[in-house]
Structures are given as C-alpha cells and as structure tokens.
Design brief:
This protein is α/β, with parallel strands linked by helices and about 525 residues long. The chain folds into 4 domains: about 110 residues, no CATH class; about 60 residues; about 90 residues; about 160 residues, no CATH class. It has 20 helices and 8 strands. It has a 5-stranded mixed sheet with strand order 6-5-4-7-8. Strands 1-2-3 form a 3-stranded antiparallel sheet, with helices on one face. A hairpin with a 5-residue loop joins strand 2 and strand 3. Helix 9 packs across helix 10. The radius of gyration is 41 Å and the shape is elongated. It holds the Pfam family zf-BED.
Length: about 525
C-alpha cells in the first residue's frame, strides 16, 4: 500500500480520508476508494495537462539545496531544472489562487512563464504558402481596375517602392509585368466588361444617347457616345459606348455614319428613344439623318446664355482674371495673401482661376475672390501692385454678377445628374431662370453693366426657350412628373396636348397587352 501512496501523482494531492483526496492545484475533491490512483491520475491529465506526472515533484528543501549548489551542471541538466522549476512555480501559483477550471489554470500558466527573450511565432511565419490561382486572378483584376479608374501608368508595377509595398501586403503575390498588364489583363478586363454591358443593353427596352465632341490641348479631335437607360430592376444606368480620336471632317453625314456605326456595334440602333446633343447645326442635322428624336442639351444652352452675358462685364472680368493670374504666378504673393488671411481671421483660401470655355469656372473665381476680398486688397497694397485697380463700383458689379450666376450654377449642377431623371425639369428651370433674371433687373441702383448683362441673358433665354414647350418629349415628361403636371406649363394648350399624347400612349399599351393575352 505504501508503494502506491508514494506514486508521483500523489505529490499533487493531499489525502483527506480513505475515500477522498484534495488536488493541491485546483482544490477539487477526487474519489480514491480502494486506494487506487486511477482517478487522480485521470484528473491531472484532463484538468492539468501541463503537469509532467512522471517527473518527481521537488520539495522546498530540494529547491533550496539546488539553488545553493555550485552551477556545474550540463546544459541539458540546466534546461531540465529550469523546466521543472517553471512547473513548480506554476503549480504553486495556481494552487494558491484555487482556480476552478482548466481554462483558468492554462491561462495562469501562460502568464507565469518567465520571458526567455524570444517571441514564439507560428510555423507559417517562416514559410510562404503559395497563392492560389483564383486569388492571384482576383488581385490582378483589382490592380487593372485601379490603373484604369485613376488613370495610372502601367509602369507603376516597375516602381521599386510600389513593389516593396505590394510585397509587404502579400509576399506570395507576384506583380504582373508592364506588358502583361497592357497586352493581356487590360484586354481580358475589357472583354468581361464588354460582355456585361452588352447584356445590360439587351435587356433595356429603350436607350437615350448623348454625344459630345471636343479638341484636346494637343489639337486632337475626340468624340464620345454615351447610353442612358433603365434596367430591369428600375435602376438608371449610364455606359460609355465609345470614345475615340476622330480625324474626319465634322460634317453631318460623317457624324451620322459614326453614331450609326457605334449603335449598330452595340445592337441598340432600334432602341434609341432620343439623342441629346448641343445646338450645333452639324450634329442636329446628323440626328435628323438618323431619324432619331433630338433633344437639345440644356447645360449647353445655359453656357451660351451666360457667356453672352459675361461679355457685358468683360472689362471687370479681365481685371479680376489678371489679379488671379498674378497670385498664381508669384509664390511670394500667394504666401503673403495666406498670411494676411490668417491675420484678418479669414479662412486660408487660394484664389481660383477660370477657364474660357467653362462659365461656371468664372462664377467660382468671382465667388472666391469676394470671400477674401479684404485680404486681397491689403496684400496688393503691401506688394505695391497697382497694374489693375478694382474700384468700389467694380466690386459691386462682381458681387451682383455672382448673385446672377449662382442661379444658373445651381440649375447646371442639378440638370447634369446621371442618377436622376432631369428631362421633366427643363421647362420649370427655364421659367425659373427667366423669372429670377427679370426680378434682379427690376431692382434699382444697378450698375449699367449689370443691367446690360441681364438684358442680354434674357434675350438669349427668350430665343432659346421660346419653343421649349412644343418639344413632345419634354412636355410629356413634365406631365408625367407629379411635381409639375399642369403647373409646369406656361400655355395651357401645350399641357392639354401633352396630356392627350400620354393618354393615347397608355391606351395603346393597354390594347397591346390585351392582344397578347388573347394570343
């Protein structure tokens, strides 16, 4: 019996009676009927798996004796003694805290292990798992999207720092070469998107086309054709069908041929409900040749109207533009302006420069210089800049011009939206702009330049918006918009005509549906 009691497992238990024994590590009572150590051995293995049962437990005297003896042990003995001491240290700490679960014991054991000056890593830290082909293709796809959406050069993959960055994110990923990007991945991505857009256009019942042409800074002519439609989920979609360098003459016949070619390639030639263009004679004639319904671009009309009005204040416009260019070309003047703004408690804002072909850039230029007017005047005085002097009347002219242009800017931003239907707003906006311009003109004490500016813009709006209610598409869209209906028209007979057109179209659809049911 005594030999059984002296088993190593008894070093971790205190015998309370012939039937019960208490675990020194967690305090649980274990049955030992018949003097067997099976239960307590099972308890140690399941609840305290870190305890080495086969190693003898050292007493306090043994530990003191070893600590006083000369350190003449082998490295193997030292490691064994360190390991045993660690276990004893853990066992004593856990026993004193009387932990109730193995999870607590394991946590305390990990926390109590003394630092060896080395961090333990997973084995995967020392090995690079090969990337799956699927994952590699997904990253390639995202890379080509990044380059295309942000107009980045393909040679970015040859940049040393970019390579380091990608390697830190995932060492298993190998960047494609520049040629692979341009010759393979770009083509693959285009084919996938081409197929996706083709499917969307096939499901579309009707498509509206917008066209635009411009000349780049390198005097190259470009044409873009965009399709707008509502998909099967009633979501508005916009896709670019083509954008290319156009080298032929801009005659109506050539333009018609190009538009027709693009529509045929995408199989939407018979689905075109309308074509939106500017008011140039050649493109409107090209639309007529195709037999498509033409819609004038409102933003283009607004641009022509505002440009005509700005000519009436050109002398003030030239002065403001020259002052802005002076600050843009002089870093010293710009720095002085910013410091002056800080001293005056104004926000640190740089001046904005306008572009001749974009009237709204002129509006933003006027708006910004008015916001920091005091700082600009003070800075020009400090720098002894007297080439262009802005009088109080001229500042007033700029202020009133900005007020007028603000109405046109709001309409331009709203009408240019791609995710909302804007055709039904055309009549309403044309009336609102005309009304607001006349109200400002009727105000007294305006400089003559502002009066002339408003008069010119009103004349342009009268000419360009005179027959806008006669446009069938615009009038029908206005009738169908619950925000406007009758209130959207100036003349009641145009409303009645548009209303009857909608009723006839609805009746025709009803007849067709009944015929389909009979068949």
């Amino acid at each position: 019996m005594s030999s059984r009691v002296r088993s190593n497992v008894w070093n971790y238990f205190t015998k309370l009676s012939c039937e019960k024994s208490k675990c020194d590590l967690c305090g649980n009572l274990i049955s030992i009927k018949g003097g067997s150590s099976t239960n307590i051995r099972r308890h140690l293995k399941t609840k305290h798996p870190l305890i080495d049962i086969d190693s003898p437990r050292l007493t306090t005297t043994d530990r003191r004796s070893r600590s006083r003896s000369p350190p003449q042990m082998s490295s193997k003995d030292q490691n064994s003694d360190r390991s045993t001491s660690e276990v004893i240290h853990v066992a004593g700490k856990v026993a004193s805290e009387v932990a109730s679960t193995s999870k607590t014991c394991l946590t305390n054991y990990k926390k109590s292990i003394p630092s060896q000056g080395q961090q333990q890593y997973r084995i995967t830290h020392f090995t690079n798992r090969p990337m799956s082909i699927l994952k590699c293709k997904e990253i390639d796809k995202q890379l080509i999207k990044l380059l295309a959406s942000d107009y980045l050069a393909f040679n970015i993959v040859e940049n040393t720092e970019f390579k380091k960055f990608v390697n830190m994110l995932n060492p298993s990923y190998n960047l494609p070469t520049r040629n692979t990007l341009s010759q393979n991945l770009l083509t693959q991505t285009y084919n996938v998107l081409h197929e996706k857009v083709t499917e969307l256009l096939q499901d579309a019942e009707a498509v509206c086309i917008t066209t635009d042409a411009w000349t780049s800074i390198t005097t190259e002519s470009y044409i873009a054709v965009t399709a707008h439609f509502i998909d099967s989920k009633c979501i508005m979609r916009t896709v670019l069908l083509d954008c290319y360098n156009y080298k032929d003459s801009h005659t109506s016949d050539h333009l018609y041929s190009e538009i027709s070619r693009i529509l045929t390639e995408w199989s939407v030639h018979e689905k075109v409900s309308a074509v939106v263009t500017d008011n140039a004679a050649n493109i409107t004639a090209a639309v007529r040749l195709g037999g498509w319904r033409h819609l004038p671009c409102l933003t283009h009309s607004l641009n022509l109207i505002v440009q005509a009005g700005l000519k009436e204040i050109s002398h003030v416009h030239v002065k403001i533009k020259a002052i802005v260019e002076y600050f843009k070309k002089s870093s010293n003047a710009t720095h002085k302006l910013l410091s002056t703004e800080v001293q005056m408690g104004l926000p640190e804002l740089k001046l904005k420069q306008d572009m001749p072909i974009r009237w709204n850039s002129t509006f933003y230029m006027f708006k910004r210089i008015l916001k920091v007017k005091e700082a600009v005047v003070s800075t020009l005085a400090l720098l002894n800049y007297d080439k262009y002097h802005i009088s109080q009347d001229e500042w007033k002219t700029i202020q009133l011009a900005t007020r007028i242009l603000k109405c046109f800017e709001k309409v331009t931003v709203d009408i240019s939206a791609e995710k909302n239907v804007t055709l039904s707003k055309v009549i309403y906006y044309s009336r609102a702009l005309m009304r607001s311009s006349k109200m400002i003109q009727e105000e007294t004490d305006h400089p003559s330049e502002i009066y002339n500016m408003l008069q010119k813009m009103i004349e342009q709006m009268t000419r360009r918006f005179l027959k806008i209610e006669e446009n069938i598409s615009i009038s029908e869209a206005t009738v169908l918009d619950p925000r406007f209906k009758r209130q959207g028209f100036c003349a009641s007979h145009y409303f009645e005509k548009a209303k009857q057109n909608v009723i006839n179209a609805a009746s025709h659809l009803n007849i067709r549906s009944e015929a389909d049911e009979k068949n």
